[in-house]
Amino acid sequence: MNIDQQKKIFDKQAKKYSKRARKKTPDHRWRQKLLKSASGKILEVSAGAGANFQYYPKDASILAVDLSSAMLQHAEEVAKETDSRVDFLVANVEELDLPANSFDTVVSTLSMCAYPNPERVLRQLATWCKDDGQVLLMEHGVSSNRIFSKLQHVFDPLFKKRVGCHINRDIVKLIESSPLEIVRIENALFDAVHLVWAKPNPTQIK
Which CATH topology does 3-201 take? Predict the structure, then answer.
């Protein structure tokens, strides 16, 4: 699936995600646990409709990036409602050019499933994060449960077509192979959901 096709899917889903951004959805406790660690100058990639804004510190300065302008239109409304200080940028994260070592906290929640090249994005996150900063990830991927993982592999083409994401990526392996060092990790739902606290590994960033 190319970027234009993905954008159309996400634009179409924007209104639905906007409603979720204003509610305590089932993943509320995971977002709250992960993002209470966020601080300073924050970069959030694939920010969607702003579901994370309610969990950031009130004094945080946030740059929210997303491919979908429709998503960010809703995110702007959520930012006002939550009194969050957010700048918005419509861009394809894979092609985004930001200064290295610029952010105290870099955040990605439920986005690694959608990128055509997640390895590239993880390297970028490590590059944009300050050496003493942190990268916070909440991602879903293939389960350690054999029955569940088989179902994920079977239904992955359908999810890719309808939702614009993959459900059978080995997210932990991708992170371990990236220029990120996992500091802490928690898993849920048969190891299909991962909360990851990480930091850049400068020796692996070129």
Answer: Rossmann fold (3.40.50)
